[in-house]
């Protein structure tokens, strides 16, 4: 138990009572019959409920008896508006999926549609216990506005390709937009920005360097898809005579600011290189399976001290934005990949989805329940039959939970979802908007089919 005053009662906004608190703090403390005190969106006390009740007073008591409370999960790699393409093109390899199905429709997307996609994404994240995400897409201001109105945290980057994209004719246009985006969200408590070149096979080396310089100037993370599949490696070798990791290293782009998404097709020597340069890697196991890209050697990365976070990728290549499912897959696949049942254990995947993902977002104070850290919390109902009996909450979070047991999601002390009700999103209106968006997308696909025939 720790807080600033020892004897007098401290006034706070909210006191939470829970059966168990999985703090994910430095010592990974787990508190039975726990209490949390919250003031101005931050945690000001953590301990047993008896300790918290005797030290703090508040007008609002939140009784989460029968629940486990943990830090909100953090999705360290996604493309939120792509929820619009959920299930639109399945069972295809990465390049065919992108070039023949996703990109043609993506080019036609309006800001209105992006807004609907982003809102569905925020609703799904909030519903399944996620309180922050790292995004890459275009018209990112739209997603940022939706994140703010939904009350969830976001780090956003304008996706950039060297060929003219729906957003940018040139690299400089993109850098300009990045500056504007950072300015626009400068005073936001919830939204920050990142620089987001797409990949080494879609962005030229000098523009990769240019984008990195911009990230340095703006003091924000630099994120890129890297070594996602053998196809990408071959393209990179053909074009530059170097594998993707080596290419970034040669360009001087591996450092603490660097966040690499995927790293599936990667050698032991490259893993050492990433560790030496203190980069972050984000593991997206389900998307890598669905696109048949492979299984990243995550335990090897963890063994040499690389910070590995967890992401779902977009709902178009995963079909869910559910980090509970992602944790289970990460743990199960890790065992097969390394032929070791003890590889990537339950505590490891929980760390990946909380503390490590927070570091990947450049927001290390997230992902743990500790004094002076933001009150981003999630509660799970432990009376669900699939969580009975419970010997270890951490085991259940990794292997037994589905995300549907989430009964409350809170960001900065504000409840966004509780017991079936969203407080910041009208699900009914959203359903209607999604139906309209779906009609539009089907029309687009139809038009494309017809134009191919002629």
UniProtKB/TrEMBL annotation:
CDD domains found in the cross-reference section: ATZ_TRZ_like
UniProt cofactor note: Binds 1 zinc ion per subunit.
Regions that span the bilayer: none
EC number of the protein: 3.5.4.28, 3.5.4.31
Residues annotated for Zn(2+) binding in this entry: 77, 79, 225, 313
Domain Amidohydrolase-related, residue spans: 68-416
Residues involved in substrate binding: 106, 198, 228, 313
Keywords in alphabetical order: Hydrolase, Metal-binding, Zinc
Domain of life of the native organism: Bacteria
Biological function: Catalyzes the deamination of 5-methylthioadenosine and S-adenosyl-L-homocysteine into 5-methylthioinosine and S-inosyl-L-homocysteine, respectively. Is also able to deaminate adenosine.
Family: Belongs to the metallo-dependent hydrolases superfamily. MTA/SAH deaminase family.
Protein name per the record: 5-methylthioadenosine/S-adenosylhomocysteine deaminase
Source species: Pseudodesulfovibrio piezophilus (strain DSM 21447 / JCM 15486 / C1TLV30) (Desulfovibrio piezophilus)
Name of the gene encoding the protein in the UniProt record: mtaD
């Amino acid at each position: 138990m720790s807080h600033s005053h020892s004897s007098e009662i401290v006034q706070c906004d909210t006191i939470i009572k829970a059966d168990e608190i999985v703090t994910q703090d430095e010592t990974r403390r787990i508190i039975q019959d726990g209490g949390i005190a919250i003031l101005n969106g931050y945690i000001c006390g953590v301990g047993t409920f008896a300790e918290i009740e005797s030290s703090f007073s508040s007008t609002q008591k939140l009784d989460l008896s029968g629940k486990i409370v943990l830090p909100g999960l953090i999705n360290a790699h996604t493309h939120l508006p792509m929820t619009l393409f959920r299930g639109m093109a399945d069972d295809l390899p990465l390049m065919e999926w992108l070039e023949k199905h996703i990109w043609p429709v993506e080019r036609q997307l309006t800001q209105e549609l992006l807004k609907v996609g982003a809102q569905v994404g925020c609703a799904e994240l909030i519903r399944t216990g996620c309180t922050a995400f790292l995004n890459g897409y275009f018209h990112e201001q739209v997603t940022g506005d939706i994140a703010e109105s939904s009350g969830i945290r976001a780090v956003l980057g304008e996706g950039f390709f060297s060929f003219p994209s729906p957003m940018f004719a040139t690299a400089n246009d993109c850098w300009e937009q990045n500056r504007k985006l950072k300015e626009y969200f400068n005073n936001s408590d919830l939204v920050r920005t990142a620089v987001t070149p797409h990949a080494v096979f879609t962005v030229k080396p000098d523009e990769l360097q240019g984008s990195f310089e911009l990230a340095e100037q703006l003091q924000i993370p630099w994120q890129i898809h890297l070594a996602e599949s053998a196809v990408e490696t071959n393209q990179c070798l053909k074009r530059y005579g170097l594998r993707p990791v080596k290419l970034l290293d040669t360009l001087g782009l591996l450092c603490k600011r660097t966040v690499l998404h995927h790293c599936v097709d990667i050698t032991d020597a490259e893993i050492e290189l990433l560790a030496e340069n203190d980069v972050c890697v984000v593991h997206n196991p389900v998307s890598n399976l669905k696109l048949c890209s492979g299984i990243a050697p995550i335990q090897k990365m963890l063994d040499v001290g690389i910070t590995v976070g967890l992401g779902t990728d977009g709902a178009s290549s995963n079909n869910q934005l559910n980090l509970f499912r992602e944790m289970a897959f990460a743990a199960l696949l890790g065992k097969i990949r390394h032929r070791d049942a003890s590889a990537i254990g339950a505590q490891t995947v929980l760390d990946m989805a909380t503390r490590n993902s927070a570091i990947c977002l450049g927001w290390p104070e997230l992902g743990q329940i500790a004094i002076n850290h933001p009150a981003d919390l999630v509660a799970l109902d432990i009376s669900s039959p699939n969580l009975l009996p419970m010997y270890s909450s951490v085991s259940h979070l990794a292997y037994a939970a589905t995300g549907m047991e989430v009964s409350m999601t809170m960001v900065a002390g504000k409840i966004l979802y509780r017991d079936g009700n969203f407080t910041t999103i009208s699900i009914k209106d959203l359903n209607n908007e999604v139906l309209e968006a779906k009609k539009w997308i089907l029309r687009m696909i139809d038009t494309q089919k017809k134009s191919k025939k002629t």
